[in-house]
Design goal:
By secondary structure, this protein is mainly beta. Helices cover about 10% and strands about 35% of the residues. It starts with 18 loop residues before the first strand and ends with a strand. Bound molecules: ligand MTE and molybdenum atom. The site of ligand MTE has 18 residues, from strand 7.
């Protein structure tokens, strides 16, 4: 397949705009869901998600990379292009930091109409302890030239999206790329990266939605024009109609999630809870802002009461919260919402965009108390 353009070769459900009002899921969505799994919500128990529970999002195929011949190439508008082995990268300064990462499409499958894509409900978030070397040090080593405006990250994975044959590529402004918390990570929870999480090396940009953290890094290039590739202009936009380019998706919007209480019904996942005192718990996060407040509603979002926040354990990770609830017999819709330090509060109505990005509407958990 050598053509860059392949219009019409891959018809998709939902037609040209890829939207459906069908409450059943299309085969294409199930196919994606089986490749890209979410974190089971009981995984919210762990401040650092066990690696095998970490959510996963892979646009194309997981590339097979022979680390003996692999090199990270740093080039473009730099004074000294570099080609580094993994061992050479490991000799650079080492940082380990817990980082919460969330997919920008989290909440997509709750939307009406629903964009046909990876059908996340709310489980596309996890926290890992990432180890690597700060990107800034390597950019300094290579020496950015003055005309560089962005840093472009190219993955080794390749596929077709939006009728365009491409490597997965995303860019960041020089200022964002030079922030001290931005890492080139080669380990996750103390182990080398698993193939699906970007082995041998991935970018890690705390605070941003996950698409920014490019896996399977091949090249890093300083570029002199803003990069206009598909993953920047064709998707990851808050666009509301076909002719609205929309703002780019950047930092994670504020969200709280609760560990579903009690025990689940196998098929519906409705929770069975014993009447009496219940301690509800979960975690909340907000991009680069702090979580200011978490609130619980036991009546489907009509009235709210405050929850207690745990101490933050990392500036780049979610924060635990707890809330006491006196469960009375009957059916209840538990909702949780967070507010960030800039006053942004999670809505109870959906936040609809045509690609289903950043829908941080409050989580709702159906509970039967006996
Ligand atoms: N090269 C490459 N990097 C990628 C992706 C990809 O498909 N290819 N997916 C991105 C998206 S959309 C997300 S949400 C995160 C998911 O990282 P994880 O699978 O390690 O949780 O990786 C990002 N980095
Ligand atoms: Mo994502």
């Amino acid at each position: 397949m050598d053509a860059r353009r392949s219009a019409g070769r891959f018809p998709r459900p939902g037609g040209e705009d890829g939207l459906t009002t069908d409450d059943r899921f299309h085969r294409e969505e199930v196919q994606l869901a089986n490749r890209n799994r979410g974190m089971p919500l009981e995984g919210l128990r762990y401040p650092v998600t066990p690696s095998g529970m970490h959510y996963l999002l892979v646009h194309f195929d997981i590339p097979h990379i022979d680390v003996r011949s692999w090199r990270l190439r740093i080039g473009g508008a730099v004074r000294l292009p570099l080609a580094l082995t993994l061992d050479e990268l490991k000799k650079r300064p080492v940082v380990t930091v817990p980082v919460t990462m969330e997919c920008a499409g989290n909440g997509r499958a709750l939307l009406e109409p629903r964009p046909v894509s990876q059908p996340w409900l709310v489980e596309a978030v996890s926290t890992a302890e990432w180890t690597g070397t700060p990107l800034r040090g390597l950019l300094d080593e290579a020496g950015l030239r003055n005309e560089a405006v962005e840093i472009l990250f190219t993955g080794l994975d390749r596929g077709v999206q939006g009728d365009e044959v491409q490597h997965y590529q995303r860019s960041l402004s020089v200022a964002e790329a030079r922030r001290e918390e931005v890492l080139l990570a080669y380990a996750m929870n103390g182990r080398p990266l698993e193939p699906q999480h970007g082995f041998p090396l991935r970018l890690l940009v705390p605070g941003w939605y996950g698409m920014t953290s490019v896996k399977w890094l091949d090249r890093i290039d300083a570029v002199v024009e803003p990069f206009r590739g598909y993953q920047m202009t064709g998707t990851y936009r808050y666009s509301r109609s076909a002719d609205d380019p929309g703002d780019p998706v950047t930092l994670m919007r504020v969200r709280a999630l609760m560990i579903p209480p009690g025990i689940p019904d196998f098929r519906t996942r409705v929770r069975l809870v014993a009447a009496g005192a219940v301690t509800l718990a979960g975690r909340a996060w907000a991009g680069r802002a702090a979580v200011a407040r978490v609130e619980l509603s036991t009546d489907g979002g009509d009235t709210w009461s405050p929850c207690a926040l745990d101490e933050p354990f990392s500036p780049h990770a979610w924060r635990g919260w707890t809330c006491e609830w006196n469960a009375t017999p009957g059916r209840h819709a538990l909702c949780v919402r967070a507010t960030d330090s800039e006053g942004n509060v999670q809505p109870t109505a959906q936040y609809w965009t045509r690609q289903g990005m950043g829908n941080n509407m409050a989580q709702r958990v159906e509970v039967l108390v006996e």
